Write the structure tokens for this entry.
Amino acid sequence: MHPDFLQQLCCPFDKQDLTLKTFLTDTNGQIMEGLLTCACCNRYYPIIHGVPIMSPDEYREWSLEAPVVKRWEAKLEGKKLETFRLENAKAE
């Protein structure tokens, strides 16, 4: 995904702007892995192999996304990805 493409995207649920966190880019600056998040509803949309996954919740499959997004949690500053939402990690 080209970084400028973010200006064309909004949260499919509430139409709010999305925030981008990039994890991997290719040599041309294309985003290969990243996370789009909505500050309003806390939903997240992963970018996998350069493609933003922005389907509505009922059409997403957590078990397919989980292996990819779980490895990103260490880079999320205390946040946790759970069932299509970005949540604060619970203190133990």
